From TrEMBL:
Belongs to the folylpolyglutamate synthase family. The keyword Metal-binding applies. Its EC number is 6.3.2.17. Pathway: Cofactor biosynthesis; tetrahydrofolylpolyglutamate biosynthesis. GO terms for molecular function: ATP binding; metal ion binding; tetrahydrofolylpolyglutamate synthase activity. One of its GO terms (biological process) is one-carbon metabolic process. The keyword Transit peptide does not apply. This is Folylpolyglutamate synthase. PROSITE patterns: FOLYLPOLYGLU_SYNT_1, FOLYLPOLYGLU_SYNT_2. SUPFAM superfamilies: MurD-like peptide ligases, catalytic domain, MurD-like peptide ligases, peptide-binding domain. Its cofactor is a monovalent cation. Transmembrane segments: none annotated. Keywords: ATP-binding, Cytoplasm, Ligase, Magnesium, Membrane, Metal-binding, Mitochondrion, Mitochondrion inner membrane, Nucleotide-binding, One-carbon metabolism.
Length: 495
């Protein structure tokens, strides 16, 4: 446990933060006992907020744009942030934009951004330990949370983000929910300037339930009376639940179709799912600016103002549909990790490979979720179907999320929530390999320990290709894998 007075660096903060992860054994025990997050988790954050010196109404100063959804939350948030940031530059409203997202790709501090940049290591350490100390010394709100305790990892970062943004004078903050909505720590906000619900599908089944209507109930929990709410077109079961939730709360929920004003706007990748995210972002940014820049309104017939166009076209959201070229290998990197989003990723990869020559190589992992083996079918078939000659991946590598062959995890990726024995024995990876061999007996399937070794393997394969060919590699299945891979490919902190 970090000593509150002695350790003050960024690395110390990350070590202390890692100590707040729920260990694997406890997660397992809870799972067996059927314990799931409930209303007490938001009450707990409310208690901690008081303990560090704020009330939920202080959060009104942040003018929060709150986003939930199964897929596209982060991308939507990044779009909103990028639009507001450009608007702020030309109109000076909002003055400072905060962005809170999860999980992180390269470093923990990228979850808390100001004016689109991750806060510095120094600032992170300063605010991290200020929260830490207040939690240790104050006994405020003892009726809500036990004195001397601290929130778990993700909740701590949520709590800390409020402290950072309020102190730094942020006046518009975009918040991505962690898991679900109703019981997510970010749902402590009472008066967001707008709520947005991106595409719903199946994920986090254990916590949220295994059907899309149950999941929609949770995500719909971020809508608040008095705040405008927006969503994209959803499958019927989800749409019905969202409508009912809106009604119950007295909220007018607007369903945003693909915005016609995006015609000619270069949204990347050029795919329907991303246009849905962008359309939702336009509606959210408009709602926020109505409040922040009195009287602001978009022309419904278009065109979009230049701040919106530039915001959408120039957004940086790393690890999603990224292509990196190096000698011998074209790296396609995408952090998809649900059945639906992996199909999107596969489709995108096939389109990118169109006209290019060379063997297709997959590097895949997903740690700690046994259902992930069912992600593989869609990935395998989508790539085969999309290839003119029906060729799937020639080489398929399953690795763990351990970054380096020699030194193990980067500190920002230490994860106590997985079973360490499974990682050591590569249990999950072997299950993946078996499934893939059944799906595609022609593929050369490998199980490799670290991300670094997996990357080197793919690089090695480039020596076997013919002139004019390049290895076409897809790295996907987990944001941790993708973040680790980008770190290695770029040799430095890719932030
Ligand atoms: N609207 C969407 N529908 C389906 N897939 C999507 C959508 N938006 C993004 N994706 C896919 O999901 C991946 C993750 O996107 P993003 O980071 O926006 O999602 P997220 O909701 O923040 O996910 P998480 O926080 O669970 O990682 C993208 O790389 C892309 O492949
Ligand atoms: Mg998720
Ligand atoms: Mg996300």
């Amino acid at each position: 446990m970090a000593n509150s007075s002695a350790n003050r660096t960024y690395n110390d903060a990350i070590d202390a933060l890692n100590s707040l992860q729920t260990p694997f054994a406890i997660i397992e025990a809870r799972r067996k006992a059927g314990i799931r997050p409930d209303a007490t988790s938001v009450q707990e954050i409310r208690g901690y907020l008081h303990r560090i010196g704020y009330t939920p109404s202080d959060l009104d100063r942040l003018n929060i744009i709150h986003v939930a959804g199964t897929k596209g939350k982060g991308s939507t948030c990044a779009f909103v942030d990028s639009i507001l940031r450009r608007y702020s530059r030309s109109k000076n409203a909002p003055r400072k934009v905060g962005l809170f997202t999860s999980p992180h790709l390269i470093a923990v501090r990228e979850r808390i951004r100001i004016d689109s940049r991750p806060i510095s290591e120094e600032l992170f350490a300063k605010y991290f330990f200020e929260v830490w100390d207040r939690l240790e010394t104050s006994d405020a709100a003892k009726e809500l949370v036990e004195v001397g305790t601290k929130p778990i990892y993700a909740r701590y970062l949520t709590l800390m983000s409020y402290h950072v943004f309020l102190n730094e004078g942020v006046d518009a903050a975009v918040y991505e929910t962690g898991i679900g909505g109703e019981y997510d720590a970010t749902n402590v906000v009472e008066r967001p300037v707008a709520s947005g619900i991106s595409t719903l599908g199946i994920d986090h089944v254990y916590v949220l339930g295994g059907t899309v209507d149950k999941i929609a109930w949770h995500k719909g929990g971020i809508m608040k009376r008095g705040s405008p709410a927006f969503t994209v077109e959803q499958v019927p079961e989800a749409a019905g639940v969202l409508r009912a939730r809106a009604e119950e709360k007295g909220v007018e929920l607007r369903v945003v179709g693909v915005d016609g004003r995006l015609e000619g706007v270069k949204v990347r990748p050029n795919a329907v799912f991303q246009k849905k995210n962008a359309s939702l972002a336009v509606a959210l940014a408009e709602a926020a600016l109505k409040k922040l820049d009195g009287g602001f309104e978009l022309d419904p017939k278009g065109p979009l103002p230049k701040e919106f166009v530039e915001g959408l076209e120039q957004v940086v959201w790393r690890g999603r549909c990224e292509v990196k070229e190096e000698e011998g290998v074209s790296w396609h990197v995408d952090g998809a990790h649900t059945v639906d989003s992996l199909k999107m990723a596969a489709r995108w990869f096939v389109e990118e490979c169109d006209g290019k020559k060379g063997p297709k190589v997959l590097i895949f992992n997903q740690q700690g979720r046994s259902e992930a083996v069912d992600f593989l079918d869609g990935l395998c078939n989508t790539v085969k179907k999309g290839d003119p000659a029906g060729n799937g991946f020639e080489h398929v590598i399953f690795c763990t999320n351990v970054t380096y062959a020699e030194t193990g995890y980067k500190r920002d990726f230490v994860n106590h929530q997985y079973n360490p024995k499974d990682i050591e024995k590569m249990t999950q990876q072997k299950i993946f390999a078996e499934r893939w061999s059944a799906l595609d007996p022609d593929a050369n399937v490998m199980v490799i320990h670290s991300i670094e070794e997996a990357i080197n393997k793919a690089r090695g394969l480039s020596e076997t290709v013919q002139d004019g060919e390049k290895v076409q590699a897809l790295v996907t299945g987990s944001l941790h894998l993708v973040g680790g891979a980008l770190g290695i490919l770029e040799k430095a902190d890719a932030l």
